[in-house]
Amino acid sequence: xxxxxxxxxxxxxxxxxxxxxxxxxxxxxxxxxxVCVVDFDMGLRNLDLVMGVEKRVVYxxxxxxxxxxxxxxxxxxxxxxxxxxxLATSQTADKESLTPEGIDHVMNLLSAxxxxxxxxxxxxIEHGAMMAxxxxxxxxxxxxxEMTSVRDADRIMGYIAARxxxxxxxxxxxxxxxxxxxxxxxxxxxxDMMSLATIQDILVMPLLAVVPESETVLRSSNAGRxxxxxxxxxxxxxxxTAASRFLAETRHGIPQTSRAPQMAGAGFLSALAExxxxxxxxRLFRHA
Length: 288
Ligand SMILES: Nc1ncnc2c1ncn2[C@@H]1O[C@H](COP(=O)(O)OP(=O)(O)OP(=O)(O)O)[C@@H](O)[C@H]1O
Ligand SMILES: [Mg+2]
Hints:
Layout: E1 4-9, H1 17-30, E2 35-39, H2 47-50, H3 61-65, H4 71-74, E3 76-77, E4 84-87, H5 100-113, E5 116-120, H6 127-134, E6 138-143, H7 147-163, H8 165-168, E7 175-183, H9 185-190, H10 196-202, E8 207-212, H11 216-222, H12 234-250, H13 260-266, H14 268-286
Parallel strand pairs: 1-5, 1-6, 2-4, 2-5, 6-7, 7-8
Antiparallel strand pairs: 3-4
Helix pairs in contact: 1-12, 13-14
The structure holds adenosine-5'-triphosphate and magnesium ion (MG).
Magnesium ion is lined by residues 17-18, 41, 120.
């Protein structure tokens, strides 16, 4: 078996990556796939809390990487969703102990066991975030409807394009998918927050989900329950729809760049205008 690797990333911190990893991972597992969510946020582990399995973590990623534990000893099985597992990160402050070789080893072991490996990235563009992106086949770019978050998401897309294993080995590029979280239609209409249309003008990639701002998210994470398990909430529905949309979009496994279909649909002139506008926005942002 060879797993598909999905990295959940952002530039800015605190936008909802860990929430998305848990909710999207649980939703994919509910669709019948074998899923492992992996915490790459070394020293700041919290995916285990959001998944509600923190008391059952004995071994972590580093133990498997250095051979102290077998993968089967470190994986924590979810008791509610069949086929859903967690590999926790280490609490050590020494982030450099996560080496490319150690990660390759663990990812190879996971790849033989699962359909999907979902990597929860730390924020930013430091070592840990690059390690989490390295093996990605898909990137879920999470952003909030605010300028700083959108600008940082745009920057991370540049890193995905240049620094992933796919980019460096000349493979088809990492496919990017956008998740906008903490969105409020009402506030966007009032002009208090960026509208979805503006975000999509800047971050040109397929939209997987718009997750509303909701206090049910905090309730879910305090209860250690991935938000998608709450079938009655809008947040739960948004993440479940994201999983089925992802499966539908990738069913045939056709390698493509994420921007190509939008350009093809729009025609050459509008594609050119879009690219020019995008370049302009990038320049404006970088010099802001
Ligand atoms: N849709 C939402 N509505 C309301 N609150 C949300 C929503 N999504 C996430 N949050 C809250 O935002 C905070 C940050 O979420 P989360 O930990 O998932 O972000 P993160 O991107 O993983 O952060 P970090 O960069 O620190 O790892 C949490 O308190 C979470 O409960
Ligand atoms: Mg996080």
